[in-house]
Design goal:
The chain has about 675 residues and is α+β, with helices and mostly antiparallel strands. It has 15 helices and 20 strands.
Length: about 675
C-alpha cells in the first residue's frame, strides 16, 4: 500500500496472482473509513470532505459522504455479523448519523429526496444498508429514529426518476419502506421494473438509457448490482417479481461477467472507458454480486483474483491516498476527472467494489485459490455484440484493448460532439483519452476525422453500427458509418457534464465509414470519406490518430514520427494506403495517467480523397513485446498488404494479407447501407 504499511503478509499460495487475502481487504476498508473521522459532523450525519462542491451543492455532498461510506461500513458489519470491535464502532457511528440526519430540527438534517434530486441516489444506499444490517442496526434503533427515517425515505414516492439506472434507487427505497411498515407504491416499482426491462440488450448487457448507446461500467456496478441484491435482501420474489425473472437476471449477470473478466488487464486495471471513472474499483461490484447472491458465473478463485487485482491496482498506485481518503481521480488525485455531479465524497461509491466484505471469511471466494484472468491463460479475441466492441489482448503483454464500433453515449443521428470516454474508436486498460486540452473538442486519439480549413475536427456521435464479427484465424472485424459534423460549442459552457457529448451549432460534413480488423492488439484501420453532394467541398485533409500513451517522463518518438513510447507502452501508426503525412502530438497535464500524453497520427496531406479506401496499421504494445515497435514502418518491417475492390454503389471489399500469410476480408459498405 502507498502509505508503507502492510497489514498482513502476502499469501502467494492462496493468492498466487495478487498475494492478497481477506485481511488485506478488511485493513484497507478500515483505513478508508478511519480517514473520514476528521471530516464527520458532530452528530455524524454529514461527512464534509475538502474540495469543490458538486452541481448539487455542499449539503448534497455531505450527505454523499455519509451514505456512500455507509455502504462500506455496512459490508464490514455484515461480514462480521455485527460482532466485534470494528462492527460495534461502525454501528454506533452510523446509528448516530442516521438519528441526526433524519431529524428536521437538527442542523445536520439531510436534504430530502423530493427537494434535491441527488438525495434520491443517496437514499438508496441508506435503505440498502439498513436492510442488509437490519438485525444489528435497524431493529435496535429508537422508535422515533425509525419513524423519522421512514418519513425521510418516503419522500421518494411518486417522484420523477430519469429512466436510467436511477430507477433502482426508488425500487430499493420503497421496498425497504414496504418491509419497515411504511408507505410505498406498487405502481412506482412496477413502472421502474419496466424501465429496467427496456434497458436489456444481447448477452446480458444493459444500456444506461433506452435509445442511447450508453455502455459502460454502469452496466455492472448499477444495472447488475441492484436487481439481484434486491431480490435476495427483500421479500419480493413471488410477490413483486416471479422466480423466473430472478433467474433471467442471474443468467444475464453470468453472461455479462464472461465478457467483463476479459476487460481486466493483468495488472488489475479495469477498462478506462465511460463516465464516473472516479469510482475506480466499483468495477468489481458485479463479480461480488454473483458470489453474494449465488448467481453463479466465474469460479470463486477467479472472482477474487479479478476483484483483488482491481483493488490492489489502485491501492498500489495512490488510491486511497496516504491519509486513506479516496479522492477525485484515477490513481492519484486528479480533480479534472470530476463531472458536474461529482463532489468530494463521490469516489466512495467505489465501496460497491468491496461488497465481498459482506461475505464471511469462510466463504469460497475467500478460501479458494486464485484462478487466472483470461489474459493470463492465453491471448484474447472476443466480440461483444451489444456495445459493438472487439476485444483483444496478448498474454505476454497483459493489456486488454477494445475497438469500438457501437458505443457513443448518444442516440442515433445525434448532432452533439463526441464524448471522449465513449465515442473513440479504441479504449484499453492502460490508456485514457485526454480529459482536458484541445483534443477534447477536436478528437485526435483513436479517431478518424476530416479537418476543415481552420483545422477543426469532425465528430461522429450518432453513427450507425454496421457489423461486428469474428473472421478466420482469430481476427475480429467491425465497422460503423454515418454523417460527421463540425460542432461549435461556444455559449454552451453551463451544460451539465453527465458523460455525453456537448450540444452546439452543427455544420454538416461528409459521410465517414470506418472499419477495424483486430489481431491481438494490432489493428488494420480502414476508412472512406463520401460526400452526398455533387461538388467536392474545400476541406483540408483526413487525419487518423493512434493510441494515447502517458507518463510523467517526456515521451520518445520513433523514426518518421509515427510512434510514441511512454510508460512502458508503444503507440504506433503506419500508413498502408493514402496517408503521406505523419507526426506525434504531445500534450501536458491532460491525463491522470501521466504528465505527458503522446498520440501519433497520420494525415492525407492537404487532400480529402473522396470515395477512396484509406488504410493504416494502428497498434498498442507493452513490455518486452514492444521492443523495437518504436521503429514502426522502418525499412525491412513486414506490413499487411491491402487490396480494395470497388463494389456496387460505391462500397468496397478489402482484403488484408497479414505478414504470416493469413488472409482476412472485410467490407466498407456503401454510404447509407447497413
Amino acid at each position: 500500500m502507498t502509505d508503507g504499511t502492510d497489514p498482513a503478509p502476502e499469501d502467494r499460495t492462496l493468492s498466487p496472482y495478487t498475494g492478497w487475502t481477506r485481511a488485506h481487504w478488511t485493513a484497507l476498508a478500515d483505513r478508508m473509513l478511519a480517514a473520514l473521522e476528521p471530516y464527520r459532523s458532530p452528530g455524524g450525519a454529514r461527512v464534509v470532505l475538502p474540495g469543490p462542491a458538486s452541481r448539487s451543492g455542499p449539503d448534497s455532498d455531505a450527505l454523499e459522504g455519509y451514505a456512500r461510506s455507509f455502504l462500506l461500513a455496512g459490508f464490514r458489519i455484515t461480514g462480521e455479523r455485527g460482532e466485534g470491535a470494528v462492527a460495534t464502532r461502525l454501528l454506533e457511528t452510523y446509528a448516530a448519523g442516521l438519528a441526526a440526519g433524519t431529524d428536521p430540527g437538527s442542523p445536520e438534517y439531510w436534504p430530502r429526496p423530493d427537494v434535491l434530486g441527488q438525495a434520491k441516489v443517496e437514499a438508496a444506499s441508506v435503505a440498502l444498508v439498513l436492510q442488509m444490517t437490519r438485525p444489528w442496526l435497524w431493529d435496535r434503533l429508537d422508535e422515533g429514529v425509525r419513524e423519522r427515517t421512514v418519513a425521510w425515505l418516503a419522500t421518494v414516492i411518486g417522484q420523477e426518476y430519469p429512466p436510467i439506472n436511477w430507477v433502482w434507487f426508488r425500487i430499493v427505497v420503497e421496498s425497504f419502506l414496504r418491509e419497515a411498515g411504511g408507505p410505498w407504491s406498487a405502481a412506482d416499482i412496477e413502472e421502474d421494473l419496466a424501465v429496467h426491462a427496456s434497458l436489456r440488450r444481447a448477452d446480458g448487457w444493459l444500456t444506461d438509457g433506452d435509445g442511447l448507446r450508453a455502455y459502460d461500467h454502469y452496466t455492472g456496478w448499477a444495472l447488475h448490482l441492484y436487481p439481484l441484491l434486491w431480490a435476495d435482501l427483500f421479500d419480493v420474489t413471488g410477490s413483486l417479481i416471479s422466480p423466473e425473472l430472478r433467474a433471467t437476471w442471474a443468467a444475464d449477470l453470468r453472461r455479462y461477467l464472461a465478457d467483463a473478466v476479459c476487460l481486466v488487464g493483468a495488472d488489475g486495471s479495469p477498462l478506462l472507458q465511460g463516465r464516473s471513472l472516479v469510482y475506480r474499483f466499483a468495477a468489481a461490484a458485479p463479480l461480488w454480486t454473483a458470489a453474494y447472491t449465488g448467481a453463479g458465473g466465474p469460479a470463486p478463485g477467479l472472482v477474487r483474483r479479478a476483484a483483488s487485482g482491481m483493488l490492489r491496482h489502485f491501492a498500489d498506485r495512490g488510491a486511497p491516498d496516504g491519509d486513506g481518503l479516496l479522492t477525485l481521480g484515477w490513481h492519484r488525485a486528479w480533480p479534472a476527472m470530476r463531472q458536474s455531479y461529482s463532489g468530494p465524497a463521490s469516489p466512495y461509491w467505489a465501496a460497491k467494489g468491496m461488497l465481498g466484505l459482506a461475505l464471511p471469511a469462510g466463504h469460497p471466494v475467500w478460501t479458494a485459490t486464485e484462478e487466472p484472468l483470461p489474459v493470463e491463460t492465453g491471448d484474447v479475441a472476443r466480440v461483444i455484440a451489444a456495445p459493438g466492441w472487439l476485444v483483444g489482448a496478448r498474454r505476454d503483454e497483459g493489456v486488454a484493448v477494445v475497438l469500438n464500433h457501437g458505443t457513443d453515449h448518444a442516440a442515433p443521428s445525434s448532432e452533439e460532439t463526441d464524448a471522449p470516454l465513449y465515442a473513440r474508436l479504441g479504449y484499453s486498460t492502460a490508456t485514457l483519452p485526454p480529459q482536458t486540452g484541445p483534443t477534447v473538442a477536436d478528437p485526435l486519439d483513436n479517431a478518424v476525422v476530416v479537418l476543415d480549413t481552420a483545422g477543426r475536427a469532425t465528430h461522429r456521435a450518432g453513427f450507425t453500427p454496421l457489423y461486428a464479427r469474428e473472421l478466420d484465424g482469430g481476427v475480429l472485424a467491425a465497422a460503423s458509418s454515418g454523417p460527421v459534423r463540425w460542432v461549435d460549442t461556444s455559449g454552451e459552457e453551463d451544460v451539465p457534464d453527465h458523460g455525453s457529448g456537448r450540444p452546439g451549432r452543427s455544420t454538416p460534413g461528409p459521410v465517414l465509414t470506418v472499419a477495424s480488423l483486430l489481431r491481438g492488439t494490432t489493428e488494420v484501420r480502414l476508412a472512406r470519406v463520401d460526400h452526398p453532394g455533387s461538388v467536392p467541398p474545400a476541406w483540408r485533409e483526413v487525419r487518423l490518430g493512434g493510441w494515447p500513451v502517458s507518463s510523467d517522463e517526456p515521451p520518445r518518438t520513433g523514426p518518421g514520427a509515427r510512434a510514441a513510447t511512454a510508460g512502458g507502452l508503444v503507440s504506433r501508426v503506419v500508413a498502408l494506403l493514402g496517408f503521406p503525412d505523419s507526426g506525434v502530438a504531445v500534450e501536458r497535464d491532460t491525463s491522470p495517467l501521466g504528465t505527458h500524453t503522446a498520440v501519433p497520427w497520420l494525415a492525407t496531406g492537404g487532400t480529402v480523397p473522396l470515395g477512396e479506401v484509406l488504410a493504416a496499421v494502428v497498434s498498442l504494445r507493452r513490455g518486452a513485446a514492444a521492443a523495437g515497435a518504436g521503429d514502426a514502418g522502418a525499412a525491412g518491417e513486414e506490413l499487411p498488404e491491402i487490396t480494395a475492390v470497388t463494389g456496387d454503389a460505391g462500397g468496397h471489399q478489402v482484403t488484408v494479407r497479414w505478414p504470416d500469410g493469413l488472409v482476412s476480408v472485410a467490407g466498407l459498405p456503401a454510404a447509407g447501407s447497413r
